[in-house]
Design brief:
This protein is α+β, with helices and mostly antiparallel strands and 428 residues long. It folds into four domains: 159 residues, MoaB/Mog-like domain (Molybdenum Cofactor Biosythetic Enzyme, Chain A); 46 residues, Alpha-Beta Complex (Molybdopterin biosynthesis moea protein, domain 2), CATH 3.90.105; 92 residues, Beta Complex (Molybdopterin biosynthesis moeA protein, domain 3); 81 residues, MoeA, C-terminal, domain IV (Beta-clip). It is 17% helix and 29% strand. Strands 7-4-6-5-9-8 form a six-stranded mixed beta sheet, with no helix packed on it. The longest helix has 19 residues. The protein starts with a helix and ends in a 13-residue tail after the last strand. The mean pLDDT is 95. The structure holds adenosine monophosphate and magnesium ion (MG).
Length: 428
């Protein structure tokens, strides 16, 4: 079959099948050790188990007095119990000696309880006094053993799983790592993603416009998308619509990078060089058409073990292709256990009348009102338009066929940006 023949002879695979085909080839990058302060946004290369119990000593949860609960069972307003204060224990101190019956130790939040003590009574519930020149405390109510005391291992037992391999490191994970004594942490290496724009019409941002030419926006958008997904973008510049040039640049880049993204040239036009190359190349094609709008010619393959994503040149479709296929793969390279975009249901905020032969992935925003999440397709969502990209928080899935969707219907949405910022800029 001639090249052109194959370019036209394309079988559309469903989006979820396309995602599966890609993910089946992706393995996390190798691990590296980074200082704890640089681990934010990376994924753990190994599980974190509690190296000791948390807390590892019986800890006071209050400023007050450590006492023996049995000493105050009869205490009342009318008949307060007086305990002799034998010590004052600050956080970080070793308690001086075991607490005997009839004694109390002043104790601060976070301090270690002396042996013998089994409860802490809040400072505000006590009255300090003196008897025969010695400090005493008056307690006017009984207290149960265990009150205001965190037992050893109450937060985690020694050896308990604190964060599994693949966990995304954020403030909570970092707190656990620091508390576990990790000043550095093994994470997966950030994947390097090479980005090539194809199109003889493309100009760099600094160039003056000329008739028929446009500035390359996809490369810069893709670089930011890669960064937001935890990768390191490597801009390869712009290639003319020439098969040999594209073959050489992508093959070379694939040797250095962990993945390559191209934009443009995937349809069936005369100068669609990616489509032409993928129909006769030395790699293996995973798919060269997806049952979706926008971006049905989106293609992907594996070249020498590296994923090559051939996204549409239309900015809107290029963006949708990245979110559907590249971001989840990037996340997997970083060590994520997840394989696709985060998904949820929402109520459709307004009617959507357009009927499609393929499912449509419609750039949308989300709004939360009265405890319900509404999804609104954005204006300017044609595949060629880029104005809606900046406001997109989700892709509304409009199923193929049917009679359109009505406001109030429950619909499926996929969260863009890995779901990390769902709503807009509204603040309290
Ligand atoms: P293509 O996928 O190459 O057929 O391109 C589809 C449309 O997207 C055409 O209007 C191109 O000019 C436009 N386009 C292609 N690449 C880019 C790019 N890097 N930045 C902005 N627009 C592009
Ligand atoms: Mg083109």
């Amino acid at each position: 079959m001639g090249l052109d023949g194959q370019k036209h002879n394309r079988t559309a695979v469903p989006v979820d099948e396309a995602v599966r085909r890609i993910q089946a080839h992706i393995r996390p990058t190798d691990a590296e050790e980074v200082p704890l302060g640089e681990a934010y946004g990376r994924r753990l290369a190994q599980s974190l188990y509690a190296p000791h119990a948390f807390p590892h000593f019986r800890r006071s949860g209050m400023d007050g007095y450590a006492i023996r609960a049995a000493d105050v069972t009869e205490a009342s307003r009318e008949g307060p119990v007086a305990l002799e204060v034998t010590a004052s224990i600050a956080a970080g101190d070793m308690p001086p000696e075991p607490l005997a019956s009839g004694q109390a130790a002043k104790i601060m939040t976070g301090a270690m309880l002396p042996e013998g003590a089994d409860a802490v009574i809040m400072l505000e519930m006590t009255v300090s006094t003196e008897r025969a020149g010695r400090p005493y405390v008056l307690i006017a109510r009984p207290i149960e053993a265990g009150v205001n005391v965190s037992p050893v291992g109450s937060e985690a037992a020694e050896g308990e799983l604190l964060a599994g391999a693949g966990s995304l490191i954020g403030p909570g994970e970092t707190a656990l790592l620091a508390a576990s004594g990790c000043s550095s942490v093994r994470v997966h290496r950030r994947p390097v993603v090479a980005i090539l724009s194809t199109g003889s019409e493309l100009l760099p941002p600094e160039a003056a416009l000329s008739p028929g030419r446009i500035r390359n926006s996809n490369a810069w958008m893709l670089a930011d998308l890669v960064r937001s997904g935890g990768g390191i973008p490597h801009l390869l510049g712009t290639a003319e619509d020439d098969l040999e040039t594209v073959r050489r640049i992508v093959s070379d880049a694939g040797r250095e990078a962990d993945a390559v993204i191209t934009s443009g040239g995937v349809s069936v036009g005369d100068y669609d060089v990616l489509a032409e190359w993928l129909s006769s190349w030395e790699g293996s094609t995973l798919f060269n058409k997806v049952a979706m709008r926008p971006g049905s010619p989106t293609s992907a393959g594996i070249l020498e073990g590296k994923p090559i994503f051939a996204l549409s040149g239309n900015p809107g479709a290029c963006y949708v292709g990245f979110e559907l296929f590249v971001r989840p793969a990037l996340d997997r390279l970083l060590g994520s256990p997840h394989a696709g975009m985060p998904r949820m249901q929402a109520l459709l905020g307004q009617d959507y009348g357009k009927v499609n032969a393929y499912p449509r992935f419609l750039p949308s925003r989300l709004e939360c009102r009265e405890g319900r999440v509404y999804v609104y397709p954005l204006a300017h969502v044609k595949s060629g338009s880029m104005r809606s990209i900046k406001d997109t928080k989700a892709l509304l899935i409009v199923p193929a066929g049917g009679n359109g969707l009505q406001a109030g219907e429950t619909v499926d949405v996929l969260l863009t940006g890995g779901g990390r910022s769902l709503f807009g800029e509204e603040r309290l």
